[in-house]
Amino acid sequence: MNIEEYRNYCLSKPCVTEHFPFDETTLVFKVCNKIFTISGLERMPPAINLKCDPERAVELREEYDGKILPGYHMNKKHWNTVEIEQLPQKFIEELIDHSYDLIIQSLPKKWLEQLK
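Given the sequence above, the corresponding structure tokens read:
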């Protein structure tokens, strides 16, 4: 997956918006105003930060050593940094979905109505 495919996939999800709140090279995607993924556009190799269930995060880091790492500049318990060109696109999409779903689960009920 390249960075443009990542962007298109994120924007295809309901209620997702893109932002550059930190600088012009740090792309942030939010669902209902909550961050679910971040990418430094100048980072080589391309990588994204994704929210992850803490137990699964550890398992993924062990299984994909060097390709999935503790979240760069994030809470390492809940975020992973994933090198997107090193792993299959379908798998990256599953990880994006997982991050998105974790944020959706934490939303107040009134926000959930907007997603239906």
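The chain has four helices and six strands. Try to locate this feature in the token string yourself.
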